[in-house]
Amino acid sequence: MQQILPKPKSQLQINILLFEAFSNMVLACLVEPLRVVRDDYGENITWNILTPDNVPVRSSSGIALTPDGPVSQANACDLLIVIGGDRFRQDAQKYTTRKALMIARKAKAVIAADTGAWLLASVGYLDNKQATLHWQLLDEFTNTFPKVNSIATPFTSDGKWMTCGSAAGAMELVLQEITRRFGAAARFDAASMFLNAPRLVNVADSVVVGLPAHPNPRIRRVLNCMASSLEKPSALTEIATAAGLTMRTMARIFETEMGVSPGKCYQHMRLARARDLMLQQGLSATDAAPLCGFSCAASLKRALNNKNNKLEKSIAR
User: Fold this and answer.
1) For residue 184, what is the enclosing H or E element?
2) Buried b / exposed e along 116-137 (16+ C-beta atoms within 10 A)
């Protein structure tokens, strides 16, 4: 009999090159969704902090970060994240900047965030490439680097080069990368941790946890129905009827636009609620289970274990 081996975890090695006066918000939006995928799915995601001069840099709010090692000794990576700071014009003129950015050649993919696109353009990496950066600088960027195909959009990609401006664009860009590398379910869980839908009418704040907004109003209606019934899950037929959809239509639009079935999505939302209750509010699995639609602690733990996350040990009572 052929031995069935477990599916190997994906490996994602990341170098993060930070410049003086970088944005904490942009850094968090790029790294925290990946951290959720690492922790909840057990994926092999690692990152190293680098700086162009190999010394600590301070964010625009004054928080200092120390590099994990010299940029010259950084290994080739799967993903390089370059986050420029408020001093990007001066940084673009420095020899140390040009030398540090040479690691982009060895990276399989590159994300340039905030003013990072300006720095990459200054050394010619974005020539004849589509790119964007913070909207306040886009006109100046276009005039300074005429060889770059600048575009007014929250984020864009051209080959291995991905660029974004604001923190919101950074979040959406990294969620897109999570979908590509780890699947739509991982994206949903990462988004659920940080993106919230507008307040729902007649639904207590404690019920809706991390519900990601969606541009499709039909999907929003379904998500709202699911979010309002996490404690006592409704049948999918009831959810579809309440959202004004047939079961076939609901299944089709979820598979097409969410990448998961309605049932899987409902399960993800209930488990996201369970994680919040246990990790953020300190509830035991026994107390959390009935609040997110599980009959007992054992069934909740089995559901968490089936998602291959690592919370099983931390919530065992």
Assistant:
1) helix 184-194
2) bbbbbbbbebbeebbbbbbeeb
Cβ–Cβ under 8 Å, residues 243 and 221:
yes
Number of domains in the chain: 2
Q: Is the pTM of this model over 0.90?
A: no
Give CA–CA dist 258/267, Å, rounded: 14
155-158/161-164 β-pairing? antiparallel
Helix axes 262-275 and 184-194, enclosed angle (nearest 10): 40
Same-domain pairing of 49 and 74: yes
From residue 264, alpha-carbon distances to 32, 36, 176, 270 in Å are 23, 18, 19, 10
Domain harbouring 299, CATH code: 1.10.10.60
b/e burial code for range 203-228 (CB count within 10 A of at least 16 → b): eeeebbbbbbebeeebbbbbbbbbbb
Rounded to an integer, what distance in angstroms lies between the CA atom of residue 187 and that of residue 313? Answer: 23
The first and second tokens of residue 214, run together, are 């969606």
pLDDT one-digit tens code per residue, 98-157:
999 999 999 999 999 999 999 999 999 999 999 999 888 999 999 999 999 999 988 999
